[in-house]
Design brief:
This protein is α/β, with parallel strands linked by helices. The protein contains two helices and three strands.
Length: 65
């Protein structure tokens, strides 16, 4: 696979980080198949940007609001 995949990932204290964790798992599976993945999100509190960077993924922060 030779593709770039953008995954929209959001999290908030009230909803938790499960969506971001699932997006990270999906990105890992896609990268194993040769895709380049990018996470896109506006609400990524706490350590989530660090988790994304540690997973070797690029992050595009959207303006919130």
């Amino acid at each position: 696979m030779n593709a770039v995949v953008a995954l929209r990932a959001e999290a908030a204290p009230a909803t938790g980080a499960g969506h971001v964790v699932r997006c990270l798992a999906l990105a890992e599976a896609l990268r194993a198949r040769g895709a380049r993945c990018l996470l896109v999100g506006a609400q990524l509190p706490g350590a989530l940007p660090d988790w994304i960077a540690a997973a070797g993924l690029d992050l595009l922060r959207l303006p919130s609001g």
